[in-house]
Batch of 3 targets.
Target 1
Amino acid sequence: MDFVDPIPGPHTIAPGSLVIVFLHHDQLDHIVIQRDSILNNKWGTFHHNDIIGQPFGSIWYSKSSTRGWLYALQATPELWAMALPHRTQIVHELDAAMVTLKLNVKPGFRVIESGTGSGAMSSVLARSLSPTGHLFTFEFNENRADAAREEFKQNNLSHLVTVAHFDVCGKGGTGGFPGVESGTADAVFLDLPEPWVAVPHAATALKPNRRIACYSPCIEQVMKTATALRDAGFHSIETVEVRLKSYNVREFPFKVPDFGHSGALESSKATEASPCSSGPEAGTSTSTGRPLPIAEESGAIYRCARASQGMRGHTAFLTFATKPHPEAV
């Protein structure tokens, strides 16, 4: 069972299954289940035989400690990105989601990616284009290309992904995307230090009215890429930055001041209308600011969301553009 399997429903862990091991909220690992094998970590000794036949999501108890346990999760591209060995900086899930949306990747698409890196974005694209599409991913570093190819084989993605060790920018060569015929690609994603160099090759490979996405950490890269896109005839050029803002959702009790029967009813309605408003504190008079008596056993519980103080920093700028139809040029 792999993480692009479209069949819903419970799946059980079997020999050969890729399992994401949930150790802590910010610490994940991955293993391939093998009969009679043992996983050792600081939480204890975990026998693979104990988890075989159990559904994904089960708690896996240690043999050496009654307190040691972990979760055995089914792999998804998002979990895999947290558990895989990072050979390069990866495309985080928010950026990956935006790229997949803007490129409109769907089953049956032929997608080009360069460079492969750690393979996190490749897994996202493979899930979106499965079961009938194909991803052609290019990596100029031979060691990273070989490692990604082995991981795709391990994760049962080989039938969806072709990995090539090649410099698409053509420094010291011709460049381009060997193995992909001109005008046959449905989408192109470039995660390169100099994506503008590969833009003309992407224009050749893309079908008309299809889109390209470029991932660039620096605004100077964006400026050069946008110029290259305009020179290549692309239109609808846009650059976005995706930021993550977390909210802490909790239930809070709100006590209703005793204004008498009608007053309590009015206060209750006001509290229901805006339990998280920034007006006077509950139990305080709006005219005097003095505390009001609280009616016994009066009040309600509301679910409120409070924005976290921090926000994830900048990851990259995402630049998108569309190849025009020949008749529109």
Target 2
Amino acid sequence: MTETTTGRPLGRRRFLQTTALAAGGTALVAAHPAAAQADADFEEWFGNVSNYEGIVDMRGAETVSVAVGAEGNGGGFAFEPAAVRVDPGTEVTWEWTGEGGVHNVAAEDGSYESEMVTDAGETFAHAFDGEGVSLYACTPHKAMGMKAAIVAGDIDVGASTAAPDYVPQEPEYDGWFDGVDNFEGTVDMRGREEVRIAVDTDDSGAPVFSPPAVHVDPGTRVLWEWSGDTAHAVAAADGSYTGPEQSSGMWGLAFDGTGISKYACSFHGDGGMRGAVVVGNIFEGVRELTVEQVSLLGVYGAALLSPLALGVLMWVRSWYGAAEETETLPSRAPPNSGV
């Protein structure tokens, strides 16, 4: 293998992706913008790809990996997942399984290409700096359906989102999701720096949070994204935080500690517009927190602590680019309160 291969992907994107961080000492493929192929017929590209089940949303993930030689198309002739959505600036690492013979990773527009590889554990990395769609394939097995795509950014490619992964053990919500029609389980989003929850309507026009329940690691930023014409506001069931009333844009919190934060829309909670953020390993108990001094880009408000000992650092980001502010928050100890 040449310098086009690397071990585990390096670097972390800065808060709000203002700058892509680079880590030295590892040779990577030169970073080209994602190919401007958004007008391509996305579904047609995947017409003969047996393992394609929609786009896997990996925005906010610290690392994104794709298996080369996964099961599909009659053997070890697939990329898994076949379609991935990432943040601009994300480095994607492909890792060979050793199945299906010799494979490579080759962009349709020629912007990147790996060597032909057979050995399990070999890797190839490429960073996608701009918004767009990059279609790629394994050259020897393209006709068999060994094709895939990376979608960088929020562009609409007219494809569905793949079914989420749910946690193996459901938390106890004490009836919180009774009457929430779109609740099918807690979506496992651990391993991500940032998680997005849509503030939207379902197929019947009812207002919903989607997904309504997520499991994240301590320190994860959770973003609520509004769409549509109806105003909603995110409000904690225990009163520890309340978001702005709005019909578009984004608002978010950074959760730390261990516990469950239940929330609802201030206006439509009684109608089933409810959600929950599960933080950390709740089955090993809740640990108390203190909030250190914090200075973050775009921070508004103050540090809040819920009765579940969740350290909540509030920040707001305007979809339309409101002026940035920086505020230093004092240290606070958690209150002695029960659930």
Target 3
Amino acid sequence: MKMKKGDLLLKIKPDIYIAERDRAVAMRTSSKASLDRSAAEFKRARDMSAKGLISNSELEQATTAYEVAKATHAQSDAALKQADESLRKTTIYSPMDGTVSGLKVELGQRVLGTSQFQGTEVMTVADLSRMEARVDVGENDIISISARDTARIEVDAIPDRKLIGIVYQIGNSAKTKGLGTQEEVTNFEVRLRIHDKDVILRPGMSMTATIETETKPNVLAVPIQSVTTRSQNKDKEKKEAPEPDEMAANDAKIKQKNEKPKEVVFLVDNNAAKMVEVKRGISDDSYTEIVSGLQEGKEVVSGSYKSINRELEDGVKVKVDNTKNKNAKTASK
């Protein structure tokens, strides 16, 4: 159901609030009468005190009674305003143009709404013309995201189209799941404003989003699985004999741990793998940019993670496999 701003949404049975307002009106009337009487007595006592007809203590009593009456009247006036406000809230109007996307109660159900307790959610009015997507981003990636970054959004209900969104809010507080367990995950909520207006979306739809933190045109890129790492002194370690001394072995392990491995790709050179050190730039889910170490037009070995990261070595024979990818190369020993 579509609503306009100011349209009546619902009414809460106002009997109790009307009775409270009537009682507040009666108390205000009573306090006003008491105030008028105290004011008259105070004025009379002040005039008589000026003529020396009453003592100072009697003037003080009249003054105190007048001040108390003024405070009581102010209190009753505030109570009447509160009762009027409570009665006004029994009629609820739409705060915006939108659509009733959720109705939680039916006619005759009891609802709660006081300053001491959390109120009952009655209904949800949403502006479906301004939809947003909310995604959880890991703590390692959140530092790369900035406001106004572009996002590509895939809605499960619209599989043949990617929507465009803009980052407009990044959560400052972490959302931790599985605290204290091995599955503990820390995420931050990022909100995306969807720009596409010609699609029908509904609150609660499932989606995934790819946020573009940086864009570079005309770069040299290779499949992300083609880039692997190798130890700086791996060949040297193979030639050295194993140290019988336990301390020497521990020192070698510490040294190897502190060394930063180099990033490499394997090229096809005369049907053999040739290892080339490279420097990576930005990347997405499928490709990574090569900043240096590789020239355009070279054939790069691509395959599974196990083949390239663990099995492939410099000089290993390779063969072309055209069954899955026209340009794919697989390692062969």
